[in-house]
Amino acid sequence: MELKDLKKVGPKTIELLNRLNIFTIEDLIFYYPYRYNIYKPVDLNNSDLIDTVTINAVIESIPKVSYIRKNLNKISFQVLTNNLLVNVSIFNRSFLKASLTVGKSITLIGKYDRKKNSFVANDLKFDWINQLKIEPVYHVVKGLKNNNLHSYIKEALNNIECVSDYVPDNLNEKYDFLNKMTALNYIHNSNDIKKIKQAKLKLVYEELFLFMLKINFLKKKNNELLGLARNFDEEKVNEFIDNLPFLLTIDQQKAVIDCLNDLRSKRRMNRLIQGDVGSGKTIVAIIAMYANSLSGYQNALMAPTEILAIQHYENIKKLMTPYDVNVALLVGSQKKNEHNEIIEKLDSGEIDIVVGTHALISEDVKFKNLGLVITDEQHRFGVNQRSNLQNKGIKPDIIYMSATPIPRTYALTIYNDMDTSIIKTKPSGRKSIKTFVKKESELKSVLQDIFEEVKKGHQVYVVAPAISDREDVNLWDVDTLKRNFDKVFQKKVPTAILHGKIKALEKEKIMQKFKEGEIKILIATTVIEVGVDVKNATTIVIFNAENYGLATLHQLRGRVGRNEIDSYCYLISNKEVDRLKVLEESNDGFYISEQDFLMRREGDLFGTKQSGDMVFKIADLRHDFKILLQAKKDSEKFLNTSEVNNLKYSKILESVTNLD
Ligand code: ADP
Ligand code: MG
Predict the structure, then answer these.
(1) Structural fold of domain 3-159
(2) Ligand 1: distance of its center to the CA of 282 in Å?
């Protein structure tokens, strides 16, 4: 069966479904509701009247429609419910008039005002609800109604013959789980809360079991994989470290030792370096690259964006100047012949370190002897991509750098396939960033503070959630802020905007001008890279701060405080002030991420929404962590059984590892 075989589904609907990433009947049945509406009819005579209630009623009078003003009409009629005659009004549903005939049984959902004896309904159903009705609510797109989507899903469920259950039989038995098909039916279609919970438990467990199975499988494979035992002159590495313009912190030293040991070891390196923005992860990676090139192998460093790649490149190039190490940059915006030249030199082995975006490794780039790959901002990588960092059959050592500290227990689970080095100590002389939560009404004083900073020759980041002014959302946007700033500062302070819709080359130019100090205030959305390093920037102002998780805000403010001058962060918000105050009090990314966890804020656990690692269909790590731990144990055991060779598992595990 295909989507087009469903009743009332034509090309238009298929297009809408596609926009929800639904392409097949399977996609449809695995498209889960994100919440449920629960309707339970009450007796208005004795219900508490504050909340929205559901009532069963019979229409008693012919509905009247009144047009109040443009875009506002009201339909009013009387109903009888539990012997109570009540005046009902519904706004903007004048089209219902013809179907609301006297004597008809309907269900109304809305609020009752006993004094006025009036019921304002916001929803209505042409049937009585007996006892309890639970309606799944799905994320939809404009043009696709929840009800219709629900009916397509129901039809799909009725027509699908079987689905794979990835929970092994013995575990299904042990936990007394529903079978998969029953769980799917309940999750989409049940009036019993208990059944829905049972279904959810099964599906969550299955999802996390598979996730952990992949992680544990990767771990096992990595332990078996032989890498290159590197040989390098340690004296030379020490000399390089001694010549750095600063002393390494204790944690940096430890991380360097970890990496150098990994390089020497025959085992393949698969290491995660975790640490706050600005904690100095990059230099650790650079030292590892230097050692690797001393042993005769090439290095690739991949950043999530061109801006970051260029920044890394310039930094590394400077550091490598006194040494016999060739550094090159490879990005999409380069000229064709420049590009080709670098590709040739990578093939011939002339280049020792190449810096680029994540496209670097998947592109048609051939290395002579790639020994080490570094990826910046690891959290943007999903488990399915982790092992794809191989190039033409070469399986290099890998270092991941992540500026999203996550609590240790979580890290040990979801990054179980990697070894980790944690950098907690801050480079010396680093001051903490003074943070203030401010109401929008206090903006004036914030503007004054900004102006003072600019007068001192310092620079400022301004962050807003939207690009341009939109009617439908009440959020600060980059365009409006630029206009306001230019007005307030009478164009005496050069400002510029930066956001995801600006072309790469243009972005780079703006960033360059900001780095050089030509632009004083940079007004940007958060797509602007977390790792951008402009030492002279001392202030960051974040509008609608309530929109972001604490970890994200902490990462954002990490763009300032990059030298010994005092730095400031202003969180502008009229809401959730208590939550934001955590940032006033702490500068420790690990503590802050713990707080984020405790608050279990929707969708924002790991700094970025929908970050590669954490896209689950039904599980939610903030609530389902215990299940995750159980799934971890169970999947470890399962991996050692012969059942794992079963085709349905090997197919999945193959896709993770791509082993050739
Ligand atoms: P991260 O990648 O962890 O966000 P970076 O490696 O970009 O941090 O380091 C931020 C800045 O701090 C860089 O300019 C770097 O040169 C500098 N730095 C790194 N380690 C030290 C140190 N031990 N002492 C002083 N400055 C340091
Ligand atoms: Mg960095």
Answers:
(1) OB fold (Dihydrolipoamide Acetyltransferase, E2P) (2.40.50)
(2) 7
pLDDT digit string, tens, across residues 415-467: 888 888 999 888 877 778 999 999 999 999 999 999 999 999 999 999 999 89
pLDDT digits (tens, 9 = 90+) for 244-278: 999 999 999 999 999 999 999 988 888 999 888 77
| CATH 3.40.50.300 for domain 434-586 | yes
Q: How far is the CA of 386 from the centre of ligand 1 (A)?
A: 26
According to the model, what pLDDT value does residue 609 have? 39
Are 456 and 445 contacting, i.e. CB atoms less than 8 angstroms apart? no
At residue 7's C-alpha, the angle toward residues 6 and 12, to 5°, is 80
Ligand sitting nearest the alpha carbon of 377: 2
For the segment 605-623, the average pLDDT, to the nearest whole number, is 61
Read off the pTM. 0.72
pLDDT tens digits along 155-181: 999 999 889 999 999 999 999 999 999
Smallest CA separation from ligand 1 atom 5, residue = 280
Closest ligand 1 atom to the C-alpha of 247?
23
* Ligand 1 nearest-atom number relative to CA 283: 6
Domain ranges of the chain: 3-159, 169-213+637-657, 225-423, 434-586
Of the candidates 22, 36, 10, 37, the one whose C-alpha atom is nearest the C-alpha of residue 153 is 22
Ligand 1 mutation pick, 241, 242, 246, max ligand atoms within 8 A of CB: 246
Residues of the chain by 3-state class (helix, strand, coil), percent to 5: 40, 20, 40
**Nearest-CA neighbor of 500 among 302, 303, 358, 307?**
307
The partner residues of 108 in beta bridges, in order of sequence, read 55, 124
| CATH code for the domain defined by 225-423 | 3.40.50.300
Cα–Cα–Cα angle for 424, 428, 429, nearest 5°? Answer: 130
What number is the average pLDDT over the span 74-94?
95
Atom 10 of ligand 1, nearest CA residue: 278
The CA 276 to ligand 2 mean position distance, Å, reads: 9
Instruction: Write the residue with the smallest CA distance to atom 15 of ligand 1.
Output: 280
654's enclosing H/E stretch is helix 647-657
Query: Which ligand minimizes its atom distance to the CA of 534?
Result: 1
**222-250: b (≥16 Cβ within 10 Å) or e:** beeeebbebebeeeebeebbeeeeeebbe
Poorest-confidence range of 101-105, 112-116, 526-530, 548-552? 526-530
